[in-house]
């Protein structure tokens, strides 16, 4: 992924400092990500793709884009895999250009977040469906929701959130993020 960021940045004549300013991702993080030394979180990837004027899936795209109005099928082993800390993301439908939704297969390993105060937050909305296991969603407003197999949750992604595995083994989830490209709105309070 780092090389794709570097190529896109250089194609636009941007320095690392330019991209850092545009994306609000630290210069050190961008440099390390480009060299493959660290994995960026989803929200940082999203910020970088927006700063580059790209769809997030452009960074994960394996082949040429499909024509609009076409159909994209992902087979079991087609997902572009990205690992970050306790998370594994399988980016789906990467061949579809300029999509409004970002569908992902996710697997969350047991364990606590590296930094419990570092919540993921990004513009848009998020839908999660638990395929297997149990998932606890913790939100920066102090609320949490535990979801079991076939439960789902839909929330404003601007509300900081963590995915936590609530099973003895990894939880498998389907995640769909929607981002209209606008800046991050103020999150609504969670309702029980």
UniProtKB/TrEMBL annotation:
Spans through the membrane: none
Single GO molecular function: DNA-binding transcription factor activity
Residue span, HTH cro/C1-type domain: 5-59
Keywords: DNA-binding
Domain of life, per lineage: Bacteria
InterPro entries: Cro/C1-type_HTH, Cupin_2, Lambda_DNA-bd_dom_sf, RmlC-like_jellyroll, RmlC_Cupin_sf, TransReg_Diox_bact_type
SUPFAM superfamilies noted in UniProt: lambda repressor-like DNA-binding domains, RmlC-like cupins
Name this protein carries in UniProt: Transcriptional regulator
GO cellular component terms given for this protein: cytosol
């Amino acid at each position: 992924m780092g090389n794709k960021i570097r190529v896109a940045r250089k194609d636009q004549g941007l320095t690392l400092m330019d991209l850092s300013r545009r994306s609000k991702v630290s210069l050190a993080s961008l440099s390390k990500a480009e060299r493959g030394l660290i994995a960026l979180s989803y929200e940082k990837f999203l910020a970088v793709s927006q700063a580059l004027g790209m769809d997030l899936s452009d960074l994960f795209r394996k082949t040429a884009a499909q024509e609009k109005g076409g159909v994209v099928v992902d087979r079991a082993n087609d997902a572009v895999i990205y690992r970050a800390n306790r998370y594994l993301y399988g980016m789906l439908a990467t061949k579809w250009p300029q999509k409004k939704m970002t569908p992902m297969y996710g697997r969350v390993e047991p364990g606590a977040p590296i930094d419990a105060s570092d919540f993921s937050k990004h513009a848009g909305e998020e839908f999660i469906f638990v395929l297997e296991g149990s998932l606890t969603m913790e939100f920066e407003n102090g609320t949490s929701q535990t979801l079991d197999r076939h439960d789902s949750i839909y929330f404003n992604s601007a509300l900081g959130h963590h995915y936590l595995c609530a099973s003895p083994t990894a939880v498998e989830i389907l995640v769909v993020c929607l981002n209209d490209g606008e800046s991050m709105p103020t999150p609504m309070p969670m309702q029980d």
